[in-house]
Amino acid sequence: MKNDNLKKYALITGGTAGIGLELAKCFAKDAYNLVLVARDEARLERVKHELAAAFEIEVYTIAQDLAAPDAANEVYRKVSDQHIFIDVLVNDAGQGEYGLFAKTNLDRLLEIIQLNIVATTSLTHLFLKDMLAHERGKILQLGSIASEVPGPWQAVYHATKAFVLSFSEAVRQEIADSNITITVLEPGATDTDFFNKAGMTESKVMDQKLSDPAKVAEDGYNALMVGKDKVISGVKNKLMIAASNLMSDSSATKRMGKMQEPKK
């Protein structure tokens, strides 16, 4: 393994923009070498050179659409071919689609499930086995406050993030006697390209102040490093979820629907 000599490697999906890029910077500042996975090869190369020059680290890139079948196995194979042990896996890549469920394109929804659930599950399975064999490692999963409450107008996205939270907490308990930890980062609405890609720019969500992706990444990184099970980023988001937990499920869901409905 290339890092048997104490070099550290973090693999970050969606690591070229938004929260993923800010997380890459957090790891780079702490002398982690990086494996970045994203679809856009040109952007990967640009970010690779920027981070390598700024932080004097090694950056290996994999151009891969994680919504494609067998994508996770392909990523794992390419990492294995480089003889790199992944000390930290960050499953950041994820997408949503805005609109009423019955009126949304089914193929697009299935693509989101493939990316948010299947790829996350597969990458976690593949790299966790190596971590357990080496008796070291950490995993950071990008959840969302959407993990905590069903979301009308984004029904499938919220459901996928609920899966990420439930899945991660269950596996964390299964490996509680090991040295490996799993942390779920739950941001709220954040100033990234997510809303544009999801077709969500006319939602009432956009009327609120969006979180800074650098601050969200810092919250997630700090929680990961101390082995927390999850962290909700931002006081406003913590209070919102606390309030939702005091409501009935139907009331919390209705409240979320009002927050996400289109602007009048």
Structural summary, described in words:
- The chain has 264 residues and is α/β, with parallel strands linked by helices.
- Helix content is 48%, strand content 14%.
- Helix 3 packs parallel to helix 4.
- The termini are far apart.
- The mean pLDDT is 94.
- Keywords: Oxidoreductase.
- Belongs to the short-chain dehydrogenases/reductases (SDR) family.
Distance between the termini: 57 Å
Number of helices: 9
CATH C-level name: Alpha Beta
The total of beta strands comes to 7
Name the overall outline.
Answer: globular
Task: Give the percentage of residues in beta strands.
Answer: 5-15%
Largest sheet: 7 strands, parallel
* Count of all domains: 1
CATH topology annotation: Rossmann fold
Helix content: 40-55%
> For the residues shown, what is the average pLDDT?
94
Radius of gyration equals 18 Å
Report a brief summary of the structure:
With about 260 residues, the protein is α/β, with parallel strands linked by helices. Helix content is about 50%, strand content about 15%. It is globular.
Please give a handful of descriptors for the protein shown.
264 residues; 7-stranded parallel β-sheet; globular; Rossmann fold; alpha/beta
Please describe the topology of this protein.
Elements lengths: L7 E6 L4 H12 L2 E7 L2 H15 L3 E5 L7 H11 L6 E4 L14 H29 L3 E5 L12 H20 L6 E6 L7 H4 L15 H13 L4 E3 L2 H11 L3 H12 L4
Parallel strand pairs: 1-2, 1-4, 2-3, 4-5, 5-6, 6-7
Helix pairs in contact: 1-7, 3-4, 4-5
